[in-house]
Design goal:
Structural class: alpha+beta
Number of strands: 11
Helix content: 40-55%
Largest sheet: 7 strands, antiparallel
Strand content: 5-15%
Distance between the termini: 51 Å
Radius of gyration: 20 Å
């Protein structure tokens, strides 16, 4: 199908924007010490009273809270929803003497790894994976974008997988862990990569191949079930969406909104490319994994291979962002999202990522890492 023909089937001028939803995970920190604190069940219970049952959930570690957005279509709807969830969860945290902190991992921890929630699934994870579960109180931002069906989702993922290192570099927000500078921009992604089912997705021929790979992962014991296929980008296990899971939780609602809109535009480009019949580059998984390590280590300051191409030539994050912009700008402009996303990308280029912000605050404020926690903490309403 030619691009013109694809456009006639899916007219951009009249089609509604694809649906988008966001899940964000947060650290709970004690209001006085700023160290991670294990009050998730109490905070989640209070958050559900503020936000509604489906919109606040506990996570693996007792020091975490997750918010789940409603399905949105416009930028205004999405930002309003993210702000509602963040402030509501922050109010619930305050009721239990906590701060709600959007950092990829706890800036200040307590002795020993955080305890995991006493639920059947997490007990099963502990039995099967042993020490891997320790320290897994990490916080990411997952973006769901609606697609037509599983077949299209699988084929689009092949076009998306090469962009994951750049998205990680742009969203890195976890340089500190348990009171120490790790030397990484995204330590969260390093901790999460310990799971045997985490990492870049393989190149998938079609939906049947995807189902076979997932079945083999479950049969091997590397995944409890299809929901535990922790690839950086995947067809959702339970929704008609593509789920992009690569990012650290971002420092503020504006950045989260812009990032989610960028992801939606990138998914739109990938779907459009699938419909034109263009083949994606079959970049080997080890190269994608190495590129994600570079992104986690250096963020936007280092070089990255152009893993969206077959030759994977190393370049700067800035040049890769320019290449990304060429692809997503038509989709952003179509829905009026270009200025918002462009402003966020310019801000990252000029002032750095969330990780850079954390290090600036730690260096400039006499409060050190406690000041970092205070700077990140979401203000309750």
């Amino acid at each position: 199908m030619t691009p013109a023909a694809a456009g006639s089937v899916h007219p951009p001028e009249t089609a509604a924007p694809p649906t988008v939803g966001v899940e964000e995970e947060f650290v709970l920190a004690d209001r006085h010490s700023r160290s991670a604190v294990y009050r998730s069940l109490s905070v989640v219970s209070a958050a559900r009273a503020h936000l509604g049952g489906p919109h606040a959930t506990p996570e693996l570690a007792e020091s975490q809270v997750e918010t789940v957005s409603a399905v949105c279509r416009t930028a205004v709807e999405l930002e309003t929803e993210i702000l509602r969830l963040r402030t509501g969860a922050a109010a619930a945290a305050a009721e239990h003497d906590c701060l709600l902190v959007p950092s990829g991992i706890a800036v200040l921890g307590r002795s020993g790894p955080p305890p995991f929630l006493d639920q059947a699934r997490y007990r099963a994870l502990a039995r099967r994976f042993g020490p891997v579960i320790r320290g897994q109180g990490v916080n990411s931002c997952h973006v769901h974008v609606g697609v037509a069906d599983r077949e299209e989702a699988v084929r689009a993922v092949n076009h998306l997988r090469g962009w994951m290192p750049l998205l990680l570099a742009l969203t890195a927000n976890s340089p500190y862990s348990d009171g120490s500078d790790t030397g990484y921009e995204s330590w969260r992604s390093m901790v999460w990569s310990r799971w045997p089912s985490a990492g870049p997705p393989p190149y998938l021929r079609d939906a049947a191949h995807y189902a076979w790979v997932v079945d083999q992962l479950v049969a091997s014991g590397a995944a409890l079930d299809p929901a535990m296929v922790y690839w950086h980008v995947r067809p959702s296990a339970h929704l008609p969406t593509i789920e992009v899971r690569i990012a650290d939780v971002l420092p503020d609602a504006g950045a989260t909104t812009a990032y989610a809109l960028l992801v939606r535009a990138l998914v739109g480009h990938a779907v459009e490319t699938v419909r034109t019949g263009e083949r994606p580059p079959e970049v080997p998984e080890p190269l994608l994994r190495a590129a994600c390590w570079q992104a986690a280590r250096h963020g936007t300051a280092g070089t990255l291979p152009a893993t969206h191409t077959r030759d994977c030539v190393s370049t700067t994050a800035g040049r890769l962002t320019e290449e990304l912009w060429k692809r997503v700008e038509p989709h952003l402009s179509r829905h009026g999202d270009d200025r918002r996303v462009g402003a966020w990308l310019s801000d990252v280029q000029l002032t750095g990522t969330g990780a850079a912000r954390q290090r600036r605050v730690a260096a400039q404020d006499k409060g050190g890492l406690q000041a970092v926690v205070d700077d990140l903490a979401v203000d309750p309403p």
